[in-house]
């Protein structure tokens, strides 16, 4: 193999490096990231170009369908995904959140079965957030993460086994601009995956687990194939058996829903199932069909998990996973406790209970919560209705889902001014926090992340584009959208502390709600606001 010195040629870092981060940004680890980049970045870029071609086809009226060229994979009942790995047999409640030190300790101390440590939608990818997140996970795995913040101590509990750690790297579309290799920014996916895997794979195995990942934002089985190739190279490079890594794929794009069998097939020995990424799925549906008036959806609050296209997606995901012997994970309960209003809190928690009951009865093997206080509700429901470690035996052979079911946009409800203002508030609130380096934000007692902000701006764009009329009889056009945006910006800015970023957020948001320009992702649109690139340092000088 090439030497570390050879691999580091052409690698530069423009983010500041603090002393405690040096154990992560080692020459050996960065040379491994460089190897991943040189092996896979061109394929990644080709796949992103393929997304654009697919979007152009949809804009011409070509609706997605199950692929004829992979029919043999879907119809072959004999192949299976990997058996559940150690620590992933029972996943009935998973908590998710960013990788800041306090969150990591609190999540690992929660009464849950796994913790998804998130470098993606609930993290703003500042250089400090991304590298410190790696430091925190490195320390947590080695049980050396305890710390004090003022008078309060944060310590990992020692009275029971901690939840299994699963890491979500950034999606294929995101780059890490603070690291360039041969003049190109490195893929955020490969940077996050590479550093975590290189430092922790063998330590995790020694502790009876393995390097486990959640894989976001994929739009085709070819993107899953790229992850599988990266997994194989990584395992060969550090000398552990292929199949040690596990990846659970978030089905959070409408196109991936037509390729679920194929995605599991591509990852076979590394597959640990699929997950219903509900908010991103709604975002993707609006995004892909934003130019088609037949796909206009009502207020976000009307688009529940029981509307036809969402119900079909859930049923097909569970059936597909269980047919292939892998977990079918449910979606996020984003509620957070309402401490000063018991009646409102009771109503919100009852909504969580009903949602989890729907999931376990549908056949899901586990579910997500955003706040530790919700874990007990989810556990209670799953313990009562799923006495077994999972429901892989529930094959849902009664389910028959076709193209029309996945594309059935018959969603009752209307578009209201209140719905428009709510979307503006969520989008502004999230973008303002993101620019400040915060990736998940409590808004109206819901933990909002990038996915919900994407739904908000995509609905606004779509409503203006197609000139919809509100329930109050008002036509939604560019001037109306910008007028309401200004009103909501002024209201939010007046309530916020001095130095807030609402005006800057509104400048960006204004470009996205007029039915004209449409950025691929809000996070890509805003990324330059949070980069802190300074003088470039060759990695060989570390």
TrEMBL record:
GO CC term, one of those recorded: peroxisomal matrix
Superkingdom of origin: Eukaryota
Active site: 168, 449
Domain (Malate synthase TIM barrel) ranges: 164-408
Biochemical pathway: Carbohydrate metabolism; glyoxylate cycle; (S)-malate from isocitrate: step 2/2
Localization, UniProt: Peroxisome
Keywords, ordered alphabetically: Glyoxylate bypass, Peroxisome, Transferase, Tricarboxylic acid cycle
InterPro entries, A to Z: Malate_synth_C_sf, Malate_synth_sf, Malate_synthA, Malate_synthase_CS, Malate_synthase_TIM, MS_C, MS_N, MS_N_TIM-barrel_dom
Main location: other
Residue stretches making up the Malate synthase C-terminal domain: 415-530
GO biological process: glyoxylate cycle; tricarboxylic acid cycle
Swiss-Prot/TrEMBL catalytic activity: glyoxylate + acetyl-CoA + H2O = (S)-malate + CoA + H(+)
Every Malate synthase N-terminal domain range: 10-72
Enzyme class: transferase
GO molecular function: malate synthase activity
EC numbers on record: 2.3.3.9
NCBIfam families: malate_syn_A
Family, as annotated: Belongs to the malate synthase family.
Protein name: Malate synthase
